[in-house]
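This part of the workshop introduces the protein records we will be handling. An example says more than a description, so a record of this kind follows:
>
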Amino acid sequence: MHFVLVHGWGFHAGLFADFIAHLDGAEVTLVDLGFIAGGPKGATEWPDDSIAVGHSLGLLWLLEKGGGRYQALVSVQGFDCFSCYVAPSRLAALRRGIERDHAATLQAFWRSCGAAGFAWPEALNVPCLAEGLDWLTIWDARKAKDELKCPVLALASRDDPIVPVSMTEAVWGEGVVWSPDGGHVLPLRHPRWCARHVLEFAHSLPS
């Protein structure tokens, strides 16, 4: 069993550290999108029969850039398009904040997610963060998601301030496994819960 894990905007692959510890020793490939230095080393290749797990923007990245290199897909608070469901003013405000005071903007973002103080200000890669906002603004993978032929699991939190319940239901319908809380960082706040559901899903797949 092999998992490929992709984190969301404003984080690095270390977001999954405790989650990985509960995966019963499964093999893992981490993809790091470069937003923040200091996380585990990322990779660009993984086995085609992997189970892909995307957190937030990481799920959209898998739909856009993953090339279908997975046998099943897990969304952890993910989406197929951000700008389709969220007012443009939210992304515009983040962009202004990154330009004016990137450190304060990320600290406020992490607090809202439930991950206050996730990294040092010196670790922020501002050009990559700005590029990530471009992805959130431009990428629309609804067609790719609708055409998926692999099994899909969607995990979400009912108190997520970034991807609220209404957005999650619009993307994934009724087949969502809900946590009552966890903010926007379920792998960080409830790693055992996430791992349990992901492993149950993985074991249910055809061999």
Notes: The radius of gyration is 16 Å. The beta strands are 2-6, 27-31, 51-55, 72-76, 152-157, 176-179.
